[in-house]
Protein: Transcriptional regulator, AraC family
Amino acid sequence: MRAPIRGDESRIRLRDRTGRDYATAEADAVVHASSRLDWRSPLVFEVHRMEPHEYEEHVVVGHQLMLNLGEPVELGWRTESRRHEGTLHTGALCIQSDGVTNAPRWRDTLTFATASIPPSMIEAALGELVRAPSATFIQRHCVPDRQAHEFVTTLAAELASPTEPLFAETLSHAFVLHLLAAHGEAPGRKQLAPKGKLRPAQLRAVLEMMHAELGTSLSLTRMAECAGYSPFQFSRLFKTTTGLPPHAFVLRLRLERARRLLREGDHTPTNVALMTGFYDQSHFTNVFRKAFGMTPKMFASGRH
Structure:
């Protein structure tokens, strides 16, 4: 039974002993949330800041993780009716599979990133490469993972100051692949990424679509469908083929088109931002300055 979602409370859910779903945190504890943005990935990602807390025993809904972004805290958890204690250091994570029972607690203020991964997203990541039951994760508690910490801090920064929706989508897929490689238990699975490259006809079709739809909000799913792959497989194959991940390649195309339109002098920087698919004018200005050393307005005025 799913309880109605109230306001900006967490979209990451737990299930009590009666079968009722409820939020992991109230709205005032949710600092940033993917549900508040144009977030296309099935991954639900949030940053919480919570006072000392102890959860009642519950079942995890979706594969879930938490990663400490603040000071080390003493963490308690329960497995098979046994209590455990450990130190959750900065950058350390806990991860559990869908349906696992838990009852965590901490006695100091905790700032952490938390994510919920639908089982369907894991199955899509594995695709045809696994002929086994749905993958789950090894239970981890207070485990350091430097690469996961880097992913999480980048995703958290994206929530705090959104840039390109395609970037968040691509990054969340790469994050899930990392988690599967580092913490997954998929029987018989040895290789997470498809080998080889996109065929010339596939690459041409994707590039033609990118150019045709550059002014729109391009999605990773749309590009993957054009090539005939899942988003996970497509991201890996595209980078192997072009040397760049999809979001970086699209950004380069947008910048080149923006520079051409500004040089022609028929459009204002605001219109150019809209015509080239940037998230907003501020994002366009920041990215353009970083790439070319000046603002779009300066470039358009001929000061280059």
About this structure: The chain has three domains: 13-185, 200-243, 248-300. The domain at 13-185 is CATH 2.60.120.10 (Jelly Rolls).
